[in-house]
Prior knowledge:
The structure holds two protein chains of two kinds. Chain A is an all-alpha fold.
Amino acid sequence: MAAPLVLVLVVAVTVRAALFRSSLAEFISERVEVVSPLSSWKRVVEGLSLLDLGVSPYSGAVFHETPLIIYLFHFLIDYAELVFMITDALTAIALYFAIQDFNKVVFKKQKLLLELDQYAPDVAELIRTPMEMRYIPLKVALFYLLNPYTILSCVAKSTCAINNTLIAFFILTTIKGSAFLSAIFLALATYQSLYPLTLFVPGLLYLLQTRHINPNSAAAVHTCENEEQSLLDLFLGVCHDVCGKPSGNHLPLLLPSQLLGFHPRSLWLYINVFFYTIPLAIKLKEHPIFFMFIQIAVIAIFKSYPTVGDVALYMAFFPVWNHLYRFLRNIFVLTCIIIVCSLLFPVLWHLWIYAGSANSNFFYAITLTFNVGQILLISDYFYAFLRREYYLTHGLYLTAKDGTEAMLVLK
Amino acid sequence: MGLLSDPVRRRALARLVLRLNAPLCVLSYVAGIAWFLALVFPPLTQRTYMSENAMGSTMVEEQFAGGDRARAFARDFAAHRKKSGALPVAWLERTMRSVGLEVYTQSFSRKLPFPDETHERYMVSGTNVYGILRAPRAASTESLVLTVPCGSDSTNSQAVGLLLALAAHFRGQIYWAKDIVFLVTEHDLLGTEAWLEAYHDVNVTGMQSSPLQGRAGAIQAAVALELSSDVVTSLDVAVEGLNGQLPNLDLLNLFQTFCQKGGLLCTLQGKLQPEDWTSLDGPLQGLQTLLLMVLRQASGRPHGSHGLFLRYRVEALTLRGINSFRQYKYDLVAVGKALEGMFRKLNHLLERLHQSFFLYLLPGLSRFVSIGLYMPAVGFLLLVLGLKALELWMQLHEAGMGLEEPGGAPGPSVPLPPSQAMGLALYVLPVLGQHVATQHFPVAEAEAVVLTLLAIYAAGLALPHNTHRPLSYRVVSTQAPDRGWMALKLVALIYLALQLGCIALTNFSLGFLLATTMVPTAALAKPHGPRTLYAALLVLTSPAATLLGSLFLWRELQEAPLSLAEGWQLFLAALAQGVLEHHTYGALLFPLLSLGLYPCWLLFWNVLFWK
């Protein structure tokens, strides 16, 4: 399977290189849907030049990246385009190997449950075979690399790509079973933006399950938590020593007034990202990777300053759940909504800023519609997943008490 | 969420969409057309009113009396221009300086992509001359512009004369709070574009222009003047600009106020304003004016110098003096007084014009339709595409497409890359290949461009025969042979709806015009049924045919109908102008049609000839 992956990587790198050299690169790097004040490349360059002049990069409230990013780009500023192309490639490779291992785990679990007779007798068509799962890792890499959102983020040199790489490596190390490495990557990702902290719970659940330990065992939970917490403290301490400034300087920007593209919202939306973790953990404790997918999507929807790069990360997972396709109910309408909104973003921006006729309400209405579309998409996948689980345990062809075909209704 | 999650209601909705689809589509299309036609009737069309307070309540007494001076300047200008053959730059500089302005010149040059047959130019170089009247008591932060575009022929001399006389009159007044720039451009719109680019320090069209020596502050408004006779019977106003952009309605209201005050006869689209909107005659005349405006806005051409100002957020109008066979004539003093009044009122502006509408349609000079009232027309038309797409999706779902992955069979997506490649060829090849064409065929470059355009367009019609051959070697599913073309039609319908939607948001007229012609045949296209009839319909509604039809309609509405031969010649000239304007001013009609709508139309052509 290495050759197709290499081919996909080559095509992706060519597309990105072609766009970097064209005149579109500057236009894309200023688009507000692709870069946000937290991830814009211009601000990284600004911070680096302030550092060169001996001034603190955080003075002036322009630069909002972490000190580690400063150190990374201090040495790599001349190869910035190469760095971003490599991060995209690394993300794709990490996802490829993660999904490859995950498929093996899924198949093993399915075999175990079949042997234990946990499935109803007539669900033969819902059982997944290794044949159909063969090309999924390649498709995941393809979906990530050739997604227009990813390409736009890469060409705009948005640091969201680096965050995506860290989360992808976190997923890879979690699936491989290494608690220490996954804690490191989660700490790095949380260090850059606070939201990946919520991925701690699904990661923990997965690690405990693969070690065949009862998740309710307090001691095991405590050990993993301790490792994670100590690593996070380690990073915060390192940064504090190294640059003499609290590294959480970007936190004030995450304040509610800047949520969802500058519309004022209450504190509840900011905490919204963290709200969903507990209910999802209760419902999806048997399926931590699906939980992780939903959580990443929730982060992408509800974070302050969302960009299309965040959307691209969870969209890469769609091939993993393509066996749910037959249970999705609104996929046509939702795909249309998302495509229409993506196309209307630049049109309404043009009308607002250049034609002077529309105003910000039009543009942010499209932002809200895009988010509504994403929310409906995620809830559709959630519904499809639960429905498949229900069918697996209760049988595919359900009959009501009087013998007619029953209908499943989500209450 | 009930509609999306309740299976009972979903099934009812699905049944409704599938069963009543055809009647709903027809109803929606008819509703769209009917809504558009109803735009000229009183509840939907409103009287115009001045929204900007700063321009509303001041009483000004115009004192311009320099009619003789204007005529003298005009005669001198015409004589000098005839002598030198180009713009008499030295004479203009001298005269402007004698009137009391700060005079500067700017030279520019541009090599057009191919020779322009209508204006007979290829390597263009010229000089713009402009004089700045500095406001006596202000800081030169804002300015107004009065411009006269001078072409290579001998028109617009009276406009230059009036400009100079107005400059002399304005120089003697003390109430100016903004600088006034009096601009005379050479090679009409090319010179204006060069001046604007240099003024705003950008380079969007590849013009080589020398930088400006003198500048006057942010331009708040501009008026372009075109006068070719000593007396006029009416003043015609043009508002449509590049890519269908319109100035703020307040500027038009301002012009109309002064026309009424001075008793001038003003026309819009060359048509008089109907007085009576209650009976049927007024609205019918309004419909003619409205259709003319829609056609002009859809063409995306800058109909006058003002069209180029709009791109830089400068509200601008073009005023043309018409000398027809009417008895009552107005001399230059009347026109000068109207301009003086307009500039005095614009002088009072505290901020840019923003109170009134930027997007509107005009059935008459004192009537307008705002965007909130005309948008449903195009909404109904696009609803047809949405309903058809929904119906196709449900039919595909029932036929069992759900068992496959969302990617679908490769069959339906095969015509997509060749169609897009044809569109790309249509965009790139004519201008690139003109020299090769002139070597092998006995045609001029402009003709070569147009003929290549038509050749590639017609070659696209042969596409289905080429893309279906590889498909026949593939194993075709025998369960549901309709699935291939239905999936392709679904993609094509969504593609068309997206494009028309985005176009309608920025240029309503173009979106509406294309929707009226392309939506019915797109909805009807299928391989079964009377194929020749559908093919003829599809060809008749293709973008090029729509352009041809619009030309005939436009001349018909202007009461100068065309014969077939003349119409064809005009069509070829329009094609050449379209390509040229894209390269010289950045007009978007040519790329939109070649890269967006033509590939989409080819997809429907492929659906029609699906085997």
